[in-house]
Design goal:
The chain is α+β, with helices and mostly antiparallel strands and 91 residues long. It has one domain. The protein contains 1 helix and 3 strands.
Amino acid sequence: MPDNRSRTAKALPVSVALILFAAFVLSACVQSETLLLAGSKPLLGMQFQLNLYQDFTEGKALSVKTSVFRWNDNHYSLVSVVSLHEEDPQA
């Protein structure tokens, strides 16, 4: 009995298997206990502030989350978080 599946359909399981294998292998890098890049330097300075704006109404953010990160030897560490929330004027 001839196989009527297209070449793309035959390649799909191989592609999925490769993607799963790559995800598994790369996840080991994320869980590493040792430094992956020795001698890393702070790209954003010794300290930086990140502002996240959420819950937009009429082009205005109703909540703001401010996070401060500080360089700690070889990585950035979260130092503080402040959340501000304004009441929705239409509520």
